[in-house]
Write a structure and sequence with these properties.
There is one protein chain. The protein has twelve helices and two strands; from the N terminus they run ααααααββαααααα. Helix 2 packs across helix 4. The longest helix is centred in the C-terminal third of the chain and has 26 residues.
């Protein structure tokens, strides 16, 4: 299953590495990805920051709050930067519960008190959860399988399952468990990208315009008990990004000015 998607993805990934990734310094490449990823991942949760807003905040810090953006949104974005930097600096770390909790702690460190004053960043929820039109199950029963999810994800990578399939499968079931009081979506997307980065793959950036398809694919796990829709979507988004950025790179390389 997914043989065709894997073949297309891997062919494009090789071309993308040569044309885009390796042409930039590691620092420049990671900053470019961090800004795009942070802007869109937070936007999926309702943050109004644009990519340009995110770039300004990343470059100038909290001293330069973009016009029309709230302090809470700025803090959320700054927390996402810290969580991203934390993960990138620990790509050799075990994919375990300790890493998961540390990422959630950084993602929610300066915003959780506004949303749930009695909750602790990085600690599992102590009450049942809801999001949008979804009522999650009993929190004790959903938290219990988290260590097994982390271990089985690590084992799947060791067994040679394609990193994109592993990233999507982990993400779908992590969101199903929804173990934290806040930041589950951002934490899950960060951890999925940890899987990809550790395997030497480009980041997966789910853009705000893909939000509806992404949420629907997650819901199919609850409705149908299958993550096939989410895995297909992950491949689709990754392939589309590489195609678009390759095309942009080629187009901008050939631009001619006339006076």
């Amino acid at each position: 299953m997914f043989e065709q998607e894997i073949e297309t993805y891997e062919r494009l990934r090789q071309e993308y590495e040569i044309l885009v990734t390796r042409k930039m310094s590691r620092k420049e490449w990671m900053e470019y990805n961090e800004i795009l990823f942070s802007a869109h991942s937070c936007a999926i949760e309702g943050n109004s920051f644009t990519v340009d807003d995110t770039r300004i905040l990343r470059e100038q810090g909290m001293a330069m709050i973009p016009i029309g953006r709230s302090l809470l949104e700025c803090a959320e974005m700054a927390d996402h930067f810290r969580a991203f930097d934390f993960l990138v600096s620990r790509l050799d770390a075990p994919f375990d519960e300790q890493l998961l909790k540390a990422v959630n702690q950084k993602v929610t460190e300066h915003t959780l008190s506004y949303k749930a004053g009695d909750a602790i960043p990085g600690e599992y929820t102590t009450e049942d959860m809801a999001a949008g039109d979804t009522l999650f199950g009993r929190h004790e029963e959903l938290i219990a399988p988290v260590p097994s999810l982390m271990a089985s994800t690590e084992q799947a990578l060791r067994n040679g399952l394609h990193p994109m399939v592993v990233a999507a499968r982990f993400h779908g079931y992590f969101e199903y468990l929804h173990p934290f009081r806040d930041g589950n979506g951002r934490t899950g997307r960060l951890m999925s990208n940890f899987i990809l980065l550790r395997a030497g793959h480009p980041l997966l950036i789910i853009k705000r315009e893909d939000r509806e398809r992404y949420i629907n694919a997650l819901k199919q796990i609850r409705k149908e008990g299958t993550d096939e829709h989410l895995i297909s979507l992950f491949f689709h988004i990754a392939i589309k990004r590489m195609q678009q950025e390759k095309s942009q790179k080629n187009s901008n390389s050939k631009m001619v000015f006339f006076f």
